[in-house]
Amino acid sequence: MASRIEFVEFIADQLREAGEITYRKMFGEYGIYCNGKIFGVICEDQLFLKITEAGRKLRPELAQAPPYKGAKNYLLVEDVEDAEALTRLVKATWRELPEPKPKKPKKSKKQ
């Protein structure tokens, strides 16, 4: 079962205070970004955040699980109703993640 766009939009709205939240469809599910940096994925209407030390300290009770078969573990955030707590967790996670690598310019095709 793929994630519903309504759930993805709900999560983005819950996180509006964290920064510029965007999402991109990936393999039938969604990657979710804050200020251009991917911090998690939404799979089967569940929010998974990349595991960081800050995230584990802030929410040690969160289970770790792979968002899809063959993936590494992420933090599974089941309670997405508390926007303030969710925002704190995402901000803490985001701060520890590396900046995205700059994209290489595409080579032009020679005629």
Protein architecture, described:
- The chain is of the alpha+beta class and 111 residues long.
- Helix content is 27%, strand content 27%.
- It has 3 helices and 6 strands.
- It has helices at 5-14, 53-58, 83-96, and strands at residues 21-26, 29-34, 37-43, 46-49, 63-65, 74-77.
- A 6-stranded antiparallel β-sheet has the order 1-2-3-4-6-5.
- It is globular.
- The relative contact order is 0.19.
**Low-pLDDT runs:** none
- What value does the Rg take, in angstroms? 15 Å
- Walk across the major sheet and give the strand order: 1-2-3-4-6-5
Number of helices: 3
Hey, roughly how much beta strand do the residues contain? 25-35%
| Main sheet properties | 6 strands, antiparallel
In brief:
By secondary structure, the chain is α+β, with helices and mostly antiparallel strands. The protein has helices at 5-14, 53-58, 83-96, and strands at residues 21-26, 29-34, 37-43, 46-49, 63-65, 74-77.
Write the layout of secondary structure elements.
Layout: H1 5-14, E1 21-26, E2 29-34, E3 37-43, E4 46-49, H2 53-58, E5 63-65, E6 74-77, H3 83-96
Antiparallel strand pairs: 1-2, 2-3, 3-4, 4-6, 5-6
Defining key terms:
alpha+beta, globular, single chain, six-stranded antiparallel β-sheet, 3 helices, 27% helix
